[in-house]
Amino acid sequence: MKKINKITLTIMVILAFVVGITSCARVDGLHNQTAAKVTFVFKNFANISGDYTIPGNFNDWDNSKSLITMKDGNGTSDEIVVSTANIEFSLIQTGDSGWLRPWYTAGVLEGNGVDRGTAGEPYQNFYIDALDLNAGEIILIIDGADIVATPVVQ
What is the Cα–Cα distance from 89 to 136, expressed in whole angstroms? Predict the structure, then answer.
C-alpha cells in the first residue's frame, strides 16, 4: 500500500510541475492570447491642450491615468496593450468625473451632453472594428477635422 501511495504522490508532483511550467499567466491576458500594441494619434482637435486619457472597453473605462498630452489639438499616446479586436473609446481630460463612462449605444443609453457632430472637440466616442491583433504594433489616427472624427488604422 505504501508503494502505491509513493507512486501516486510522485505522479502528482510531476503533474503539478509540468502544469506549472507549461502555463504562463500574463499580466495583460491569458496564455496564447493575441494582443497588439496600439498608439493613438489625435490631430485637429479644436486647439485643446493638457493631459488627457483614453478610456475604453480595453482598459475598463479607466479615466484616471494620463495617457496622452494634447498640445494645440494634437497628441500621441504611448503604446497601449489591446487584446480585443473591436474597441470603443473616448478622449477626455484625465479624471473628469462628469464623463465617467462616455460610451453609449445610440437610442439605448444616452445622456452625456457633449458628443456627436462636434468636430474637433474632445468627449467624442469612437469605435474601431476588427483590429488585427496579430499585427503587433498598430497606429490609430483619429482626425478631428471631420464633422465626425473617423479613426484610421495605419
Answer: 20
DSSP, collapsed to helix, strand or coil, labels residue 42 as strand
pLDDT tens track for 77-97:
999 999 999 888 888 888 876
pLDDT in tens, 141-154: 988 877 666 667 77
Transcribe 70-120 into DSSP letters.
Answer: EBTTBEEPPPEEE--SSEEEE-EETT-GGGSS----TTTS---SS-SS-TT
* Separation between Cα atoms, residue 71 and residue 86, nearest integer Å: 28
Cβ neighbours of residue 146 under 8 Å, at least 6 residues apart? 119
- At 8, is the secondary structure helix, strand, or coil? helix
